[in-house]
Amino acid sequence: MAFVRACGLSELEDDTPRRVELDGTPVAVVRSEGEVFAINDICSHANVSLSEGEVEDCSIECWLHGSSFDLRTGKPSGLPATRPVPVYPVKIEGDDVLVSVTQES
Ligand code: FES
């Protein structure tokens, strides 16, 4: 599984998603509750960028219709979204946040 650098750890502010594109895949990188998560940036309900939504309690909320996705599993907590969003493995090396988009975690 190939990890690529997504951003610097020091560039991430708590609960403020950062959108990056890795191998053509849009990814929202989020530091929340002391951990870093990588979740596909597109809502599973419609083509909306999740990184423009709010983060709270390890969940990211889609700003359009309000479904929240667990940053650990990608599962929606409520309607209208019913399908999970892919989440990806993250590794921290020094100040580098590395993400593998070739395999969903
Ligand atoms: S587009 Fe995200 S919940 Fe509808």
Largest sheet: 4 strands, antiparallel
CATH architecture: 3-layer Sandwich
Low-confidence stretches: none
Strand percentage: 35-45%
The total tally of domains equals 1
Number of strands: 10
Percentage of residues assigned to helices: under 10%
CATH structural fold name: Rieske Iron-sulfur Protein
Ligands bound, unique: FE2/S2 (inorganic) cluster
How large is the count of helical segments? 0
CATH superfamily: Rieske [2Fe-2S] iron-sulphur domain
Mean pLDDT score, rounded?
A: 95
Pfam families: Rieske (PF00355)
Domain Rieske: 4-99
Organism: Streptomyces solincola
GO molecular function: 2 iron, 2 sulfur cluster binding; metal ion binding; monooxygenase activity; oxidoreductase activity, acting on paired donors, with incorporation or reduction of molecular oxygen
Task: Describe this entry's structure for a reader.
By secondary structure, this protein is mostly beta strands. The chain has one domain: 3-layer Sandwich (Rieske Iron-sulfur Protein). 0% of the residues lie in helices and 40% in strands. It is built from no helices and 10 strands. The protein has strands spanning 4-8, 18-22, 25-32, 35-40, 55-56, 59-61, 68-70, 87-88, 90-93, 96-99. The strands form 3 sheets. A 4-stranded antiparallel β-sheet has the order 2-3-4-8, with no helix packed on it. It has a 3-stranded antiparallel β-sheet with strand order 1-10-9, with no helix packed on it. A 3-stranded antiparallel β-sheet has the order 5-6-7, with no helix packed on it. A hairpin with a 2-residue loop joins strand 3 (25-32) and strand 4. 35% of the residues are buried. The mean pLDDT is 95. Residues 43, 45-46, 48, 62, 64-65, 67, 80-81 line the site of FE2/S2 (inorganic) cluster. This is Rieske (2Fe-2S) protein. Keywords: 2Fe-2S, Iron, Iron-sulfur, Metal-binding. GO terms for molecular function: 2 iron, 2 sulfur cluster binding; metal ion binding; monooxygenase activity; oxidoreductase activity, acting on paired donors, with incorporation or reduction of molecular oxygen.
